[in-house]
Amino acid sequence: MNGNVIVGQSGGPTAVINSSLAGVFRTAIDRGAKTVYGMRYGIQGLLDEMYVDLSDYIKNELDVEILKRTPSAFLGTCRYKLPAIHENQDIYVKIFEILDKLEIECFIYIGGNDSMDTIKKLSDYAILTGKSQKFVGVPKTIDNDLALTDHTPGFGSAAKYIATSIKEVIRDGNGFSYQKQLVTIIEIMGRNAGWLTGAAALAKGEDCEGVDLIYLPEVPFDTQNFIEEVRDLLKTKSTVFIAISEGIRLADGTYVSEAGGGSDYVDAFGHKQLTGSATYLANLINHEIGCKTRAVEFSSLQRSASHLASRVDINEAFMVGGAAVKAADEGDTGKMVVIDRVSDDPYQSATGVYDVHKIANGEKTVPREWITEKGDYVTDDFIDYVRPLIQGDYPCVMVNGLPRHLYLK
Description:
Largest sheet: 7 strands, mixed
Order of helices and strands: EHEHEHHEHEHEHEHEHHEHHEEHEE
Number of strands: 13
Strand content: 15-25%
Number of helices: 13
CATH class of the largest domain: Alpha Beta
Strand order of the largest sheet: 3-2-1-4-5-10-11
Mean pLDDT: 94
Radius of gyration: 22 Å
CATH architecture of the largest domain: 3-Layer(aba) Sandwich
CATH topology of the largest domain: Rossmann fold
């Protein structure tokens, strides 16, 4: 590698997004990069020429290890949609002027579906105008909805957090079972894909009965059937626990969260903010059945709980970051690194490289055959798919009883 590398982070963060950043930095240095720049706040920050020399912050191997354990986006993130090339070439001219000034050879972007759209457009423009920079994407999303990759870094740790927290919520709720009936509805992230909510099934084990019902956005939600299922469960048990995706919707496509008021906020990619489904359904059950209800929303804790990150997830996040630099250094552009599952027992994975045009703006949802016929739980095939991804721990570096994180001042 003769030039410099620049790396950015985009979209919603994860507990292991910085492990990918560490993988990019370490591999770029090992392959001879003169400087590894970090974009502040993704491509939007780059347009304002906001970037740092990562060597000023990652000075030794201990810093690399702390970065791997640091949640959220170390560099800052954004949700910024580049215009189509024919709509506004001035933006592209400005971006490439900055890249030329910094002598950038490889541009690495860590993100999800929308971030891969950025890689696609920049690589297309480079090819169109004869630019030499290489553009490669690193997968990242707790939603696990990127096409062509077996799974995405960030998903395993979020699934581990969800299953762990649900076990704890169940223990808490069962403590009140002698006094009165209680229905607890747990809202989990997932707009159109129910991978995270399905992970609630992992809570079931020898020491925990698990959740009673799981509802994913892949199957239309029937409010009346939901009420009757809860009513039937309460005939034989005093506590009922239900996991729902924030994006569950009725047969006509209306989000359940909209019935509860929801939010009018829409981001740059046209995504409406979803919130309030659990509260709406808890109030509905209380009104229709009369029992005590509770709504629990894990919210951003699902993607920031690095203290519960899985070892598999952190190691794979580091692996794909390094693989992206290697791919770009060897001439690949307009590509995204993917994770291929080599075996389940023992679990093993490897990286591959795929055309980002087949990934950007796509969405991988839970297969219908991995959801029960009634649409109220997931199958063993789903559980077998997820379980290897939550394995192992990655002890935090503790200082004064709390985890130490790397941060930009």
